[in-house]
Amino acid sequence: MNRDEIIQKLSFSDEKSLAGLYGQAYRVKTETVGRTVYFRGLIEMSNVCVKNCYYCGIRKDNAGVTRFTLDSGEIIASALWAYEAGYGSVVLQSGERASEEFIRSVELVLAEIKSKTEGKLAVTLSLGEQTEETYGRWLAAGAARYLLRIETSNPALYARLHPKDHSFDTRLNCLKTLRKLGYQTGTGVMTGLPFQTVEDLANDIIFFRDMDIDMIGMGPYIPHAQTPLAAGAAPAMRPHSLEMGLKMIAVARLVLPDINIAATTALQALSPAGRELGLKAGANVIMPNITDTKYRAYYQLYDGKPCLDENAGMCRDCLEQRIKSLGEEIAYFNPGTPLHYTARLARNPQ
Ligand code: 5AD
Ligand code: SF4
Ligand code: FES
Asked: Which of 65, 87, 133, 192 is the right S-S partner for 82, CB 3.0 to 4.6 Å?
């Protein structure tokens, strides 16, 4: 698919064209990755962050946030819960930090999860920009996957969404380093950002292809009232944001048939059935929140985050029900390694 065709599909707005697009993406998904959903248990480790992204509710300068950091025992208990529940993988996510103390604590948690699960639980990290040395240490300690969203592939738009000391090039180089080191590498963007055009979104899809990435997590931008980007902005056009998020999933599936694509929580924040719609548009991964309920309200990147009062078991039961209703199967006790990663490893053994 070339750029013009991608733009054309992302511009669909009538019901018939949209249904055709989602249907086509669903067929490609069924033929390549199957009607199978992989669960990644999401552990929100800490909302402490050194950065100040203009869109994010837990940015450093938001003084209205109560900051928390889980201790290693809490993180490991959540990871073991996921392991015993048959989730193939957990995602350790937090705000960005670069102190040696932080790096070391992640290293120790990784080592302990590895030994307690005999290396059978795939661990994904989503801890922002780090040095090559740090990424290397975490890989050696047992992480296999890393998620680092590029947020937008347009450097000029990136510059409007971040303070001056946040660098698009640094982020891009981090992604390249992760690839080079041998991580299963995930990235993604926010859709429906202020100033973002459909051309930008088409370029994002081409960026994913050119970067040869293995996994995508992307979702609609949702304003958070206590952030500079939301201040004075018109209320989000919710049905429209949801639709663009779904179109991006569908086109990504058509362009990159063998990657893993997440139906993200932000979709569910816009519509109760948002994640099911994501699966129907071509996504094959869901990240059920397994963070202890008492911390969930403090980890709000955007307003209206769902499942604040639920616990890990409730989210699992809820999602099981929803996925069953689509006629899809949850792959328990399966790490769900992206087919794309396995194929590129076969091409270029490391
Ligand atoms: N709306 C939607 N997604 C957001 N993120 C941060 N703030 C928002 C928001 N207001 C996303 C970013 C980041 C990921 C962890 O959460 O893409 O990479
Ligand atoms: Fe920190 Fe990530 Fe939020 Fe930026 S998006 S402020 S890096 S938690
Ligand atoms: Fe948390 Fe539905 S996913 S309650």
From this structure: 87
